[in-house]
Structures
1.
Amino acid sequence: MTDDQNSPVNPTEESAGQLSDSPPGAESFFDDPNIGIPATLQGTITPANRSEPAESEEELAQAFFADEDVEPQEVNPHLDQSVNAVVVAHDGMAWLPIVIAALRAQERSVQNIVVVDTGSKDASTDFLLREFSPESIVTMPRTTSFADALAAGVQRVGISDWLWVLHDDSAPKTDALLHLLDAANRSDAAVVGPKVLGWNDRGHLLEIGVSIGLGGRRETGLERGERDQGQHDRDHDVLAVGSAGMLVRRTVWDELNGFDPFLPMFRDDVDFGWRANSAGYRVTIAPNAVLHHAEAATHRRRSADIVAQHPKRADRLNGMRVVLL
Protein backbone atom coordinates (compact mmCIF):
# COMPACT_ATOMS: atom_id res chain seq x y z
CA MET A 1 0.00 0.00 0.00
CA THR A 2 1.34 3.34 0.95
CA ASP A 3 5.03 4.05 0.90
CA ASP A 4 5.70 4.91 4.52
CA GLN A 5 9.10 6.09 3.55
CA ASN A 6 12.18 5.07 5.32
CA SER A 7 13.78 7.50 7.62
CA PRO A 8 15.81 5.68 10.28
CA VAL A 9 13.71 4.07 12.98
CA ASN A 10 13.36 6.35 15.98
CA PRO A 11 13.12 4.32 19.21
CA THR A 12 10.58 6.74 20.62
CA GLU A 13 8.36 6.40 17.56
CA GLU A 14 8.72 2.62 17.48
CA SER A 15 8.00 1.99 21.14
CA ALA A 16 5.17 4.49 21.24
CA GLY A 17 3.53 2.79 18.28
CA GLN A 18 3.53 -0.53 20.16
CA LEU A 19 1.74 0.81 23.22
CA SER A 20 -1.61 1.39 21.59
CA ASP A 21 -3.40 1.04 18.30
CA SER A 22 -4.92 4.48 18.84
CA PRO A 23 -2.86 7.54 17.91
CA PRO A 24 -2.08 10.29 20.44
CA GLY A 25 -4.82 12.87 20.44
CA ALA A 26 -7.50 10.24 19.95
CA GLU A 27 -7.20 9.03 23.55
CA SER A 28 -7.50 12.49 25.10
CA PHE A 29 -10.34 13.33 22.74
CA PHE A 30 -12.37 10.21 23.46
CA ASP A 31 -11.71 10.27 27.21
CA ASP A 32 -12.99 13.81 27.69
CA PRO A 33 -16.57 13.50 29.02
CA ASN A 34 -17.25 17.12 28.12
CA ILE A 35 -16.76 16.38 24.45
CA GLY A 36 -18.22 12.91 24.09
CA ILE A 37 -17.74 10.30 21.40
CA PRO A 38 -17.49 12.06 18.02
CA ALA A 39 -20.21 11.43 15.49
CA THR A 40 -17.57 10.53 12.90
CA LEU A 41 -16.85 7.34 14.81
CA GLN A 42 -20.48 6.52 15.59
CA GLY A 43 -21.63 6.68 12.01
CA THR A 44 -24.30 9.29 12.72
CA ILE A 45 -23.10 11.72 10.06
CA THR A 46 -24.86 11.42 6.72
CA PRO A 47 -22.37 9.94 4.21
CA ALA A 48 -21.20 12.66 1.88
CA ASN A 49 -18.06 13.97 0.27
CA ARG A 50 -18.15 17.12 2.34
CA SER A 51 -15.73 19.99 1.85
CA GLU A 52 -16.69 21.56 5.20
CA PRO A 53 -15.86 19.68 8.44
CA ALA A 54 -18.53 18.70 10.92
CA GLU A 55 -18.18 20.20 14.40
CA SER A 56 -16.92 16.92 15.86
CA GLU A 57 -14.29 16.64 13.12
CA GLU A 58 -13.05 20.14 13.93
CA GLU A 59 -12.75 19.06 17.56
CA LEU A 60 -10.91 15.88 16.61
CA ALA A 61 -8.40 17.80 14.48
CA GLN A 62 -7.99 20.44 17.19
CA ALA A 63 -7.34 17.74 19.80
CA PHE A 64 -4.67 16.12 17.65
CA PHE A 65 -2.88 19.42 16.97
CA ALA A 66 -3.59 20.91 20.42
CA ASP A 67 0.09 21.28 21.35
CA GLU A 68 1.01 23.03 18.11
CA ASP A 69 0.44 26.74 17.75
CA VAL A 70 -0.94 28.07 14.49
CA GLU A 71 0.14 31.65 14.00
CA PRO A 72 -2.14 33.75 11.77
CA GLN A 73 -0.35 34.59 8.54
CA GLU A 74 -1.27 36.54 5.45
CA VAL A 75 -1.15 33.75 2.88
CA ASN A 76 -2.90 33.77 -0.48
CA PRO A 77 -5.33 30.81 -0.52
CA HIS A 78 -5.40 30.79 -4.35
CA LEU A 79 -9.11 30.08 -4.44
CA ASP A 80 -9.02 30.32 -8.22
CA GLN A 81 -7.17 26.98 -8.31
CA SER A 82 -8.97 23.70 -7.64
CA VAL A 83 -7.48 20.94 -5.48
CA ASN A 84 -8.65 17.33 -5.29
CA ALA A 85 -7.35 14.90 -2.66
CA VAL A 86 -6.78 11.15 -2.90
CA VAL A 87 -6.22 9.12 0.27
CA VAL A 88 -4.96 5.52 0.04
CA ALA A 89 -6.05 3.32 2.96
CA HIS A 90 -4.89 -0.13 4.08
CA ASP A 91 -5.76 -1.35 7.59
CA GLY A 92 -5.34 2.21 8.83
CA MET A 93 -8.22 2.61 11.29
CA ALA A 94 -5.78 3.52 14.07
CA TRP A 95 -5.00 6.76 12.19
CA LEU A 96 -7.67 7.21 9.50
CA PRO A 97 -10.31 9.15 11.53
CA ILE A 98 -7.77 11.82 12.45
CA VAL A 99 -6.44 11.98 8.88
CA ILE A 100 -9.92 12.52 7.44
CA ALA A 101 -10.77 15.04 10.16
CA ALA A 102 -7.56 16.98 9.46
CA LEU A 103 -8.24 16.89 5.73
CA ARG A 104 -11.77 18.24 6.14
CA ALA A 105 -10.62 20.88 8.65
CA GLN A 106 -8.13 22.49 6.25
CA GLU A 107 -8.27 26.28 6.31
CA ARG A 108 -8.05 26.13 2.54
CA SER A 109 -10.47 23.33 1.71
CA VAL A 110 -10.21 20.84 -1.13
CA GLN A 111 -12.90 20.48 -3.77
CA ASN A 112 -13.23 16.68 -3.72
CA ILE A 113 -11.94 13.73 -1.70
CA VAL A 114 -11.65 10.15 -2.91
CA VAL A 115 -10.43 7.33 -0.66
CA VAL A 116 -8.99 4.15 -2.16
CA ASP A 117 -9.23 1.19 0.22
CA THR A 118 -6.94 -1.71 -0.65
CA GLY A 119 -8.76 -4.59 1.02
CA SER A 120 -8.62 -3.42 4.62
CA LYS A 121 -9.45 -6.11 7.18
CA ASP A 122 -9.88 -3.75 10.12
CA ALA A 123 -12.72 -1.27 10.67
CA SER A 124 -11.51 1.10 7.94
CA THR A 125 -14.07 -0.04 5.38
CA ASP A 126 -17.03 0.46 7.73
CA PHE A 127 -15.70 3.85 8.75
CA LEU A 128 -15.35 4.98 5.14
CA LEU A 129 -18.85 3.77 4.25
CA ARG A 130 -20.24 5.87 7.10
CA GLU A 131 -18.22 8.92 6.17
CA PHE A 132 -18.34 9.02 2.37
CA SER A 133 -20.80 8.49 -0.41
CA PRO A 134 -20.17 5.33 -2.48
CA GLU A 135 -18.85 7.27 -5.47
CA SER A 136 -16.09 8.70 -3.25
CA ILE A 137 -14.73 5.25 -2.31
CA VAL A 138 -12.72 2.94 -4.55
CA THR A 139 -12.24 -0.63 -3.32
CA MET A 140 -9.31 -2.69 -4.58
CA PRO A 141 -7.58 -5.99 -3.61
CA ARG A 142 -5.07 -6.15 -0.74
CA THR A 143 -2.22 -6.81 -3.17
CA THR A 144 -2.81 -3.59 -5.12
CA SER A 145 0.32 -1.48 -5.52
CA PHE A 146 0.33 2.08 -4.24
CA ALA A 147 0.80 3.32 -7.82
CA ASP A 148 -2.25 1.42 -9.08
CA ALA A 149 -4.36 2.45 -6.09
CA LEU A 150 -3.43 6.07 -6.61
CA ALA A 151 -4.14 5.86 -10.34
CA ALA A 152 -7.63 4.52 -9.63
CA GLY A 153 -8.26 7.31 -7.13
CA VAL A 154 -7.05 9.98 -9.53
CA GLN A 155 -9.34 8.67 -12.24
CA ARG A 156 -12.32 8.71 -9.87
CA VAL A 157 -11.70 12.11 -8.26
CA GLY A 158 -11.91 14.05 -11.53
CA ILE A 159 -9.99 16.91 -13.08
CA SER A 160 -8.51 19.73 -10.99
CA ASP A 161 -5.57 22.11 -11.08
CA TRP A 162 -3.80 20.26 -8.27
CA LEU A 163 -3.74 16.73 -6.86
CA TRP A 164 -3.03 16.20 -3.15
CA VAL A 165 -1.80 12.73 -2.18
CA LEU A 166 -2.24 11.46 1.38
CA HIS A 167 -1.64 8.21 3.23
CA ASP A 168 -4.13 6.93 5.79
CA ASP A 169 -1.50 7.48 8.51
CA SER A 170 -0.47 11.02 7.51
CA ALA A 171 -2.29 13.94 9.13
CA PRO A 172 -1.70 17.41 7.64
CA LYS A 173 -1.80 20.38 9.97
CA THR A 174 -4.92 22.44 9.31
CA ASP A 175 -2.99 25.14 7.42
CA ALA A 176 -0.85 22.68 5.43
CA LEU A 177 -2.65 22.98 2.09
CA LEU A 178 -2.68 26.77 2.40
CA HIS A 179 1.12 26.82 2.66
CA LEU A 180 1.68 24.16 0.00
CA LEU A 181 -0.34 26.11 -2.55
CA ASP A 182 1.33 29.37 -1.61
CA ALA A 183 4.82 27.90 -1.99
CA ALA A 184 3.91 26.28 -5.31
CA ASN A 185 2.65 29.53 -6.78
CA ARG A 186 5.52 31.64 -5.46
CA SER A 187 8.14 29.29 -6.89
CA ASP A 188 6.22 28.10 -9.96
CA ALA A 189 6.84 24.54 -8.77
CA ALA A 190 5.10 21.50 -10.21
CA VAL A 191 5.57 19.29 -7.14
CA VAL A 192 5.59 20.50 -3.53
CA GLY A 193 6.00 18.59 -0.29
CA PRO A 194 5.51 19.43 3.40
CA LYS A 195 7.85 19.18 6.35
CA VAL A 196 7.18 15.70 7.75
CA LEU A 197 7.30 15.07 11.51
CA GLY A 198 6.64 11.98 13.61
CA TRP A 199 3.13 11.00 14.66
CA ASN A 200 3.85 10.10 18.28
CA ASP A 201 7.09 12.03 18.73
CA ARG A 202 5.95 15.36 17.33
CA GLY A 203 9.41 16.91 17.34
CA HIS A 204 11.09 14.11 15.39
CA LEU A 205 11.99 15.43 11.94
CA LEU A 206 11.41 12.69 9.36
CA GLU A 207 11.67 14.43 6.00
CA ILE A 208 12.35 17.79 4.46
CA GLY A 209 12.68 16.46 0.92
CA VAL A 210 14.34 13.22 -0.19
CA SER A 211 17.11 12.07 -2.48
CA ILE A 212 18.85 8.78 -3.23
CA GLY A 213 22.40 7.46 -2.94
CA LEU A 214 24.27 5.44 -5.54
CA GLY A 215 23.60 2.23 -3.60
CA GLY A 216 19.88 2.93 -3.51
CA ARG A 217 19.84 4.27 0.04
CA ARG A 218 17.13 6.80 0.79
CA GLU A 219 18.78 10.11 1.70
CA THR A 220 16.97 12.78 3.71
CA GLY A 221 19.97 14.93 4.65
CA LEU A 222 18.94 14.62 8.31
CA GLU A 223 20.78 13.26 11.31
CA ARG A 224 19.36 10.14 12.95
CA GLY A 225 16.67 11.25 15.40
CA GLU A 226 17.11 14.91 14.44
CA ARG A 227 14.76 17.31 16.25
CA ASP A 228 12.79 20.00 14.50
CA GLN A 229 13.94 23.41 15.71
CA GLY A 230 13.20 25.31 12.53
CA GLN A 231 16.75 24.75 11.26
CA HIS A 232 15.50 23.68 7.81
CA ASP A 233 12.61 26.12 7.54
CA ARG A 234 13.26 27.62 4.15
CA ASP A 235 11.72 26.83 0.80
CA HIS A 236 14.24 24.90 -1.29
CA ASP A 237 14.38 22.69 -4.35
CA VAL A 238 14.88 18.94 -3.93
CA LEU A 239 15.11 15.82 -6.07
CA ALA A 240 11.84 14.51 -4.67
CA VAL A 241 9.29 14.77 -1.89
CA GLY A 242 7.59 11.92 -0.07
CA SER A 243 4.22 10.77 -1.37
CA ALA A 244 2.57 11.51 1.99
CA GLY A 245 1.32 15.06 1.55
CA MET A 246 2.68 15.54 -1.98
CA LEU A 247 0.92 18.31 -3.94
CA VAL A 248 1.37 18.03 -7.71
CA ARG A 249 0.01 19.91 -10.70
CA ARG A 250 -2.53 17.65 -12.37
CA THR A 251 -1.20 18.43 -15.86
CA VAL A 252 2.28 17.30 -14.79
CA TRP A 253 0.88 14.18 -13.11
CA ASP A 254 -0.85 13.24 -16.36
CA GLU A 255 2.17 14.07 -18.50
CA LEU A 256 4.43 11.82 -16.39
CA ASN A 257 1.76 9.08 -16.14
CA GLY A 258 1.74 9.23 -12.35
CA PHE A 259 3.69 6.77 -10.21
CA ASP A 260 5.46 3.82 -11.81
CA PRO A 261 3.53 0.57 -11.13
CA PHE A 262 6.83 -1.32 -11.54
CA LEU A 263 7.62 -0.01 -8.04
CA PRO A 264 4.74 -1.59 -6.07
CA MET A 265 5.65 0.05 -2.76
CA PHE A 266 8.44 2.38 -1.59
CA ARG A 267 10.58 4.75 -3.69
CA ASP A 268 7.82 5.47 -6.21
CA ASP A 269 7.87 9.05 -4.95
CA VAL A 270 11.64 9.40 -5.49
CA ASP A 271 11.23 8.03 -9.00
CA PHE A 272 8.40 10.49 -9.70
CA GLY A 273 10.38 13.46 -8.41
CA TRP A 274 13.40 12.42 -10.44
CA ARG A 275 11.28 12.21 -13.59
CA ALA A 276 9.69 15.58 -12.86
CA ASN A 277 13.11 17.19 -12.48
CA SER A 278 14.34 15.51 -15.66
CA ALA A 279 11.34 16.88 -17.54
CA GLY A 280 12.32 20.40 -16.47
CA TYR A 281 9.81 20.86 -13.66
CA ARG A 282 10.60 22.31 -10.27
CA VAL A 283 10.22 20.15 -7.14
CA THR A 284 10.33 22.02 -3.85
CA ILE A 285 9.69 21.84 -0.11
CA ALA A 286 7.31 24.13 1.79
CA PRO A 287 8.44 23.81 5.43
CA ASN A 288 5.58 25.98 6.71
CA ALA A 289 3.29 23.13 5.64
CA VAL A 290 3.54 20.46 8.34
CA LEU A 291 2.36 16.85 8.21
CA HIS A 292 2.62 14.11 10.86
CA HIS A 293 3.35 10.63 9.54
CA ALA A 294 3.15 7.35 11.47
CA GLU A 295 5.13 5.40 8.82
CA ALA A 296 3.05 2.39 9.82
CA ALA A 297 4.22 -0.05 7.14
CA THR A 298 7.89 0.83 7.53
CA HIS A 299 7.72 0.18 11.28
CA ARG A 300 5.61 -2.96 10.69
CA ARG A 301 2.59 -1.66 12.57
CA ARG A 302 0.51 -3.25 9.82
CA SER A 303 1.12 -5.78 7.07
CA ALA A 304 2.43 -4.76 3.67
CA ASP A 305 0.77 -7.40 1.51
CA ILE A 306 2.19 -6.12 -1.76
CA VAL A 307 5.79 -6.96 -0.78
CA ALA A 308 7.13 -10.34 0.35
CA GLN A 309 10.27 -9.02 2.03
CA HIS A 310 10.83 -7.00 5.18
CA PRO A 311 9.75 -3.42 4.38
CA LYS A 312 13.28 -2.05 4.71
CA ARG A 313 14.66 -4.69 2.34
CA ALA A 314 11.89 -3.98 -0.17
CA ASP A 315 12.69 -0.29 0.11
CA ARG A 316 16.38 -0.83 -0.63
CA LEU A 317 15.63 -3.11 -3.60
CA ASN A 318 13.31 -0.53 -5.11
CA GLY A 319 15.92 2.13 -4.45
CA MET A 320 18.43 0.16 -6.50
CA ARG A 321 15.86 -0.22 -9.28
CA VAL A 322 15.35 3.55 -9.37
CA VAL A 323 19.11 4.17 -9.61
CA LEU A 324 19.79 1.47 -12.20
CA LEU A 325 16.74 1.92 -14.41
2.
Amino acid sequence: MTSVPLIVTAAAGSTLLPYLDAASQRAAIVVLVVSFLLWSLGMCQVHLILAVYFWRLISHKLPPQQLLASCFLPLAPLGQGAYAIQQMSIFLANYLKSSGYAPTQSQPPPLPQPILLATAEAMHWLGILLNLFLLAHASFWLVQAVAAVAYSRPKSFNIGMWSFTFPWGSYANAWSLLGRDLRNSGMRGWAAANIVIVILIWLFCAGMTSWLGFWKGSLFSAPGLEEWLDEGEQDGQGDGHENGKGRENGATKRKKKGTQGEVNEKKHNADGTYTMDASRVGDVENGMNGHANGNDRQVDDKDSMRARRNGNS
Protein backbone atom coordinates (compact mmCIF):
# COMPACT_ATOMS: atom_id res chain seq x y z
CA MET A 1 0.00 0.00 0.00
CA THR A 2 1.42 3.34 -1.05
CA SER A 3 0.19 5.13 2.08
CA VAL A 4 2.08 2.91 4.53
CA PRO A 5 5.43 4.77 4.21
CA LEU A 6 3.72 8.04 5.13
CA ILE A 7 2.24 6.61 8.31
CA VAL A 8 5.39 4.71 9.26
CA THR A 9 7.42 7.91 8.88
CA ALA A 10 4.91 9.79 11.04
CA ALA A 11 5.11 7.06 13.69
CA ALA A 12 8.90 7.21 13.68
CA GLY A 13 8.80 10.99 14.08
CA SER A 14 6.33 10.78 16.96
CA THR A 15 8.60 8.30 18.74
CA LEU A 16 11.56 10.70 18.48
CA LEU A 17 9.67 13.71 19.85
CA PRO A 18 10.59 13.31 23.57
CA TYR A 19 14.27 12.91 22.72
CA LEU A 20 14.30 15.85 20.33
CA ASP A 21 12.55 18.02 22.90
CA ALA A 22 15.39 17.43 25.34
CA ALA A 23 17.91 18.63 22.74
CA SER A 24 15.99 21.36 20.89
CA GLN A 25 12.39 22.32 21.45
CA ARG A 26 12.19 24.08 18.09
CA ALA A 27 13.32 20.93 16.26
CA ALA A 28 10.76 18.89 18.17
CA ILE A 29 7.94 21.23 17.08
CA VAL A 30 9.05 21.00 13.44
CA VAL A 31 9.06 17.20 13.61
CA LEU A 32 5.64 17.26 15.29
CA VAL A 33 4.11 19.38 12.53
CA VAL A 34 5.67 17.32 9.71
CA SER A 35 4.67 14.05 11.36
CA PHE A 36 1.08 15.19 11.76
CA LEU A 37 0.91 16.28 8.11
CA LEU A 38 2.23 12.90 6.97
CA TRP A 39 -0.18 11.12 9.30
CA SER A 40 -3.16 13.08 7.96
CA LEU A 41 -2.28 12.44 4.32
CA GLY A 42 -1.59 8.76 4.94
CA MET A 43 -4.80 8.13 6.86
CA CYS A 44 -6.91 9.75 4.14
CA GLN A 45 -5.34 7.50 1.53
CA VAL A 46 -5.67 4.42 3.73
CA HIS A 47 -9.41 4.80 4.18
CA LEU A 48 -9.92 5.37 0.46
CA ILE A 49 -7.93 2.24 -0.38
CA LEU A 50 -9.67 0.17 2.28
CA ALA A 51 -13.06 1.18 0.89
CA VAL A 52 -12.04 -0.13 -2.54
CA TYR A 53 -10.58 -3.27 -0.97
CA PHE A 54 -13.76 -3.93 1.01
CA TRP A 55 -15.83 -3.52 -2.15
CA ARG A 56 -13.55 -6.03 -3.87
CA LEU A 57 -14.08 -8.58 -1.10
CA ILE A 58 -17.84 -8.16 -1.38
CA SER A 59 -17.91 -8.37 -5.17
CA HIS A 60 -15.39 -11.20 -5.57
CA LYS A 61 -14.08 -14.13 -3.60
CA LEU A 62 -11.24 -14.24 -1.10
CA PRO A 63 -7.67 -14.20 -2.41
CA PRO A 64 -6.09 -17.56 -3.33
CA GLN A 65 -4.95 -19.81 -0.52
CA GLN A 66 -1.28 -18.95 -1.00
CA LEU A 67 -2.07 -15.22 -0.79
CA LEU A 68 -4.34 -15.20 2.25
CA ALA A 69 -1.61 -13.55 4.33
CA SER A 70 -2.31 -10.35 2.40
CA CYS A 71 -5.62 -10.07 4.28
CA PHE A 72 -3.60 -8.86 7.29
CA LEU A 73 -2.10 -5.89 5.43
CA PRO A 74 -4.81 -3.38 6.50
CA LEU A 75 -3.63 -3.83 10.09
CA ALA A 76 -0.29 -2.18 9.34
CA PRO A 77 -1.36 1.41 8.52
CA LEU A 78 -4.19 1.40 11.05
CA GLY A 79 -1.99 0.13 13.88
CA GLN A 80 0.86 2.47 13.03
CA GLY A 81 -1.55 5.39 12.69
CA ALA A 82 -3.12 4.68 16.09
CA TYR A 83 0.31 4.53 17.72
CA ALA A 84 1.50 7.72 16.01
CA ILE A 85 -1.49 9.91 16.88
CA GLN A 86 -1.37 8.95 20.55
CA GLN A 87 2.36 9.62 20.76
CA MET A 88 1.87 13.04 19.19
CA SER A 89 -1.00 13.86 21.55
CA ILE A 90 1.10 12.90 24.59
CA PHE A 91 3.95 15.13 23.46
CA LEU A 92 1.63 18.04 22.69
CA ALA A 93 -0.02 17.76 26.11
CA ASN A 94 3.35 17.81 27.87
CA TYR A 95 4.47 20.75 25.74
CA LEU A 96 1.40 22.79 26.67
CA LYS A 97 1.93 22.09 30.36
CA SER A 98 5.60 23.04 30.32
CA SER A 99 5.65 26.06 27.99
CA GLY A 100 2.31 27.72 28.74
CA TYR A 101 1.84 28.37 25.04
CA ALA A 102 -1.50 29.61 23.71
CA PRO A 103 -1.99 29.88 19.92
CA THR A 104 -4.06 33.09 20.19
CA GLN A 105 -1.30 35.12 21.86
CA SER A 106 1.70 36.56 20.04
CA GLN A 107 3.51 37.38 23.28
CA PRO A 108 1.86 34.99 25.69
CA PRO A 109 1.89 35.91 29.34
CA PRO A 110 1.72 33.03 31.80
CA LEU A 111 -1.71 31.46 31.57
CA PRO A 112 -3.55 30.17 34.60
CA GLN A 113 -2.50 26.67 35.45
CA PRO A 114 -6.05 25.23 35.36
CA ILE A 115 -6.49 26.38 31.76
CA LEU A 116 -3.18 24.86 30.71
CA LEU A 117 -3.98 21.58 32.42
CA ALA A 118 -7.46 21.43 30.88
CA THR A 119 -6.13 22.12 27.38
CA ALA A 120 -3.38 19.56 27.76
CA GLU A 121 -5.80 16.92 29.02
CA ALA A 122 -8.14 17.64 26.12
CA MET A 123 -5.31 17.08 23.63
CA HIS A 124 -4.28 13.91 25.41
CA TRP A 125 -7.78 12.44 25.43
CA LEU A 126 -8.31 13.41 21.82
CA GLY A 127 -5.32 11.25 20.90
CA ILE A 128 -6.71 8.38 22.98
CA LEU A 129 -10.08 8.59 21.22
CA LEU A 130 -8.46 8.62 17.79
CA ASN A 131 -6.35 5.65 18.84
CA LEU A 132 -9.46 3.73 19.87
CA PHE A 133 -11.21 4.65 16.63
CA LEU A 134 -8.37 3.29 14.50
CA LEU A 135 -7.92 0.19 16.66
CA ALA A 136 -11.62 -0.60 16.32
CA HIS A 137 -11.24 -0.43 12.56
CA ALA A 138 -8.10 -2.57 12.72
CA SER A 139 -9.83 -5.15 14.94
CA PHE A 140 -12.50 -5.64 12.28
CA TRP A 141 -9.84 -6.41 9.67
CA LEU A 142 -8.05 -8.71 12.12
CA VAL A 143 -11.20 -10.79 12.65
CA GLN A 144 -11.85 -10.88 8.91
CA ALA A 145 -8.27 -11.98 8.14
CA VAL A 146 -8.20 -14.68 10.83
CA ALA A 147 -11.56 -16.02 9.64
CA ALA A 148 -10.32 -16.10 6.03
CA VAL A 149 -7.18 -18.05 7.00
CA ALA A 150 -9.19 -20.45 9.17
CA TYR A 151 -11.74 -21.00 6.39
CA SER A 152 -9.21 -21.65 3.63
CA ARG A 153 -5.81 -22.51 5.01
CA PRO A 154 -2.75 -22.23 2.74
CA LYS A 155 -1.45 -25.50 1.34
CA SER A 156 2.20 -24.85 2.13
CA PHE A 157 4.56 -22.17 3.37
CA ASN A 158 5.55 -19.39 1.00
CA ILE A 159 7.54 -16.20 1.32
CA GLY A 160 4.35 -14.12 1.35
CA MET A 161 3.52 -15.40 4.84
CA TRP A 162 5.89 -12.80 6.26
CA SER A 163 2.92 -10.48 5.75
CA PHE A 164 1.58 -11.80 9.05
CA THR A 165 4.32 -10.24 11.15
CA PHE A 166 4.54 -6.49 10.52
CA PRO A 167 0.79 -5.72 10.37
CA TRP A 168 -0.01 -7.78 13.44
CA GLY A 169 3.00 -6.33 15.26
CA SER A 170 1.81 -2.79 14.52
CA TYR A 171 -1.61 -3.70 15.89
CA ALA A 172 -0.09 -5.13 19.07
CA ASN A 173 2.18 -2.10 19.51
CA ALA A 174 -0.77 0.30 19.40
CA TRP A 175 -2.66 -1.72 22.02
CA SER A 176 0.45 -1.84 24.20
CA LEU A 177 0.81 1.95 24.18
CA LEU A 178 -2.89 2.47 24.86
CA GLY A 179 -2.92 0.01 27.77
CA ARG A 180 0.18 1.58 29.28
CA ASP A 181 -1.23 5.09 28.93
CA LEU A 182 -4.62 4.24 30.42
CA ARG A 183 -3.14 1.80 32.97
CA ASN A 184 -5.75 -0.78 32.03
CA SER A 185 -4.90 -4.41 32.77
CA GLY A 186 -7.35 -5.77 30.17
CA MET A 187 -5.75 -3.79 27.36
CA ARG A 188 -2.31 -4.81 28.56
CA GLY A 189 -3.32 -8.46 28.55
CA TRP A 190 -4.74 -8.21 25.03
CA ALA A 191 -1.58 -6.47 23.85
CA ALA A 192 0.60 -9.13 25.50
CA ALA A 193 -1.39 -11.93 23.83
CA ASN A 194 -0.96 -10.32 20.43
CA ILE A 195 2.75 -9.81 21.03
CA VAL A 196 3.18 -13.50 21.89
CA ILE A 197 1.31 -14.49 18.73
CA VAL A 198 3.50 -12.21 16.62
CA ILE A 199 6.67 -13.67 18.14
CA LEU A 200 5.50 -17.22 17.43
CA ILE A 201 4.59 -16.34 13.84
CA TRP A 202 7.94 -14.63 13.36
CA LEU A 203 9.82 -17.68 14.65
CA PHE A 204 7.77 -19.96 12.40
CA CYS A 205 8.42 -17.80 9.32
CA ALA A 206 12.12 -17.50 10.15
CA GLY A 207 12.47 -21.25 10.62
CA MET A 208 10.61 -22.15 7.44
CA THR A 209 12.50 -19.53 5.45
CA SER A 210 15.82 -20.93 6.65
CA TRP A 211 14.75 -24.52 5.96
CA LEU A 212 13.10 -24.06 2.57
CA GLY A 213 15.12 -21.11 1.35
CA PHE A 214 18.69 -21.66 2.48
CA TRP A 215 18.75 -25.42 3.03
CA LYS A 216 16.49 -26.82 0.29
CA GLY A 217 16.53 -23.86 -2.09
CA SER A 218 12.88 -24.24 -3.07
CA LEU A 219 11.21 -21.25 -1.44
CA PHE A 220 11.69 -18.11 -3.48
CA SER A 221 8.90 -18.36 -6.02
CA ALA A 222 5.83 -16.17 -6.28
CA PRO A 223 2.69 -17.83 -4.86
CA GLY A 224 0.37 -18.97 -7.64
CA LEU A 225 2.91 -18.26 -10.39
CA GLU A 226 3.29 -21.92 -11.34
CA GLU A 227 -0.42 -22.38 -12.05
CA TRP A 228 -0.52 -19.19 -14.09
CA LEU A 229 2.45 -20.31 -16.19
CA ASP A 230 0.95 -23.76 -16.75
CA GLU A 231 -2.31 -22.27 -17.98
CA GLY A 232 -0.45 -19.88 -20.28
CA GLU A 233 1.64 -22.68 -21.77
CA GLN A 234 -1.43 -24.86 -22.37
CA ASP A 235 -3.25 -22.02 -24.06
CA GLY A 236 -0.21 -21.30 -26.21
CA GLN A 237 0.15 -24.95 -27.27
CA GLY A 238 -3.55 -25.33 -27.99
CA ASP A 239 -3.82 -22.19 -30.08
CA GLY A 240 -0.36 -22.13 -31.60
CA HIS A 241 -1.28 -23.94 -34.84
CA GLU A 242 -4.41 -21.88 -35.40
CA ASN A 243 -2.61 -18.67 -34.57
CA GLY A 244 0.09 -19.56 -37.07
CA LYS A 245 -2.48 -20.11 -39.78
CA GLY A 246 -4.19 -16.87 -38.89
CA ARG A 247 -0.95 -14.94 -39.13
CA GLU A 248 -0.13 -16.50 -42.51
CA ASN A 249 -3.60 -15.75 -43.87
CA GLY A 250 -3.40 -12.18 -42.61
CA ALA A 251 0.00 -11.68 -44.20
CA THR A 252 -1.27 -13.11 -47.51
CA LYS A 253 -4.29 -10.81 -47.48
CA ARG A 254 -2.14 -7.78 -46.71
CA LYS A 255 0.24 -8.73 -49.51
CA LYS A 256 -2.58 -9.12 -52.02
CA LYS A 257 -4.12 -5.88 -50.90
CA GLY A 258 -0.81 -4.08 -51.25
CA THR A 259 -0.26 -5.50 -54.76
CA GLN A 260 -3.73 -4.47 -55.82
CA GLY A 261 -3.12 -1.00 -54.44
CA GLU A 262 0.07 -0.73 -56.47
CA VAL A 263 -1.69 -1.86 -59.65
CA ASN A 264 -4.50 0.61 -59.15
CA GLU A 265 -2.21 3.49 -58.31
CA LYS A 266 -3.07 6.08 -60.97
CA LYS A 267 -2.39 9.71 -61.63
CA HIS A 268 -5.50 11.58 -62.72
CA ASN A 269 -5.22 14.46 -65.16
CA ALA A 270 -7.32 17.59 -65.43
CA ASP A 271 -9.18 16.34 -68.55
CA GLY A 272 -10.44 13.22 -66.82
CA THR A 273 -7.80 10.83 -68.17
CA TYR A 274 -5.15 9.17 -66.10
CA THR A 275 -1.58 8.00 -66.53
CA MET A 276 0.61 5.52 -64.70
CA ASP A 277 4.23 5.91 -63.86
CA ALA A 278 6.60 4.07 -66.20
CA SER A 279 8.14 2.08 -63.39
CA ARG A 280 4.68 1.10 -62.16
CA VAL A 281 3.64 -0.03 -65.65
CA GLY A 282 6.76 -2.10 -65.92
CA ASP A 283 6.18 -3.68 -62.53
CA VAL A 284 2.59 -4.54 -63.39
CA GLU A 285 3.44 -5.99 -66.77
CA ASN A 286 6.32 -7.93 -65.31
CA GLY A 287 4.01 -9.38 -62.70
CA MET A 288 1.38 -10.33 -65.28
CA ASN A 289 3.69 -11.62 -68.01
CA GLY A 290 6.35 -13.38 -65.97
CA HIS A 291 7.59 -16.84 -67.02
CA ALA A 292 7.07 -19.91 -64.89
CA ASN A 293 10.78 -20.11 -64.14
CA GLY A 294 10.70 -16.73 -62.43
CA ASN A 295 12.34 -14.64 -65.20
CA ASP A 296 10.22 -11.58 -65.96
CA ARG A 297 10.04 -9.83 -69.29
CA GLN A 298 11.38 -6.31 -69.41
CA VAL A 299 9.11 -3.63 -70.86
CA ASP A 300 10.73 -1.28 -73.28
CA ASP A 301 10.92 2.32 -72.09
CA LYS A 302 9.79 3.54 -75.52
CA ASP A 303 6.61 1.48 -75.38
CA SER A 304 5.92 2.80 -71.91
CA MET A 305 6.38 6.39 -73.00
CA ARG A 306 4.23 5.76 -76.09
CA ALA A 307 1.43 4.39 -73.92
CA ARG A 308 1.70 7.43 -71.69
CA ARG A 309 1.45 9.84 -74.65
CA ASN A 310 -1.56 7.98 -76.02
CA GLY A 311 -3.24 8.33 -72.67
CA ASN A 312 -2.58 12.07 -72.57
CA SER A 313 -3.96 12.52 -76.08
